[in-house]
Amino acid sequence: MNTQINNFDEEIKEMQKEKYRLESDLKSAELKLILLFEELILLKSMQPEDVRLSNELKKCTEQKGFIIKEIQDISKKLISKRAEVEDIKE
């Protein structure tokens, strides 16, 4: 009878240990969930600024393309003018 009582007590101790491990895992998961939720709130608060900066980047990229095209056009004109100057010199 004492052996059965001791075995029962041991099983209860093991179950308590498992319960504590599970509670610890649950608390850890809750903390991770809270952290992820806070990150989500932070990201949502930054979204308007992100959209504004994305639009600004798009405008700057378009301006860069326009400027590069102008530089190419001016370079072609410069080459043409240099050729005219060379023709005049000869």
What overall form do the CA principal axes indicate? rod-shaped
- Structural class call reads mainly alpha
Question: Rounded to an integer, what's the Rg over CA atoms?
Answer: 37 Å
Q: What's the total helix number?
A: 1
Question: What is the element string, with H for helices and E for strands?
Answer: H
Ranges where pLDDT stays below 50 over 5 or more residues in a row are: none
Helix content: over 70%
Round the mean pLDDT to the nearest integer and report it: 95
For the largest beta-sheet, the strand count, sense and barrel status come to: none
How much of the sequence lies in strands comes to under 5%
- End-to-end distance, in Å? 123 Å
Explained architecture:
The longest helix is centred in the middle third of the chain and has 88 residues. This protein has one helix and no strands. By secondary structure, the chain is mainly α.
Chain-wise SSE layout:
Layout: H1 2-89
What's this model, at a glance?
The protein is mostly helical. Helices cover 98% and strands 0% of the residues.
Main traits of this protein?
1 helix, 90 residues, mainly alpha
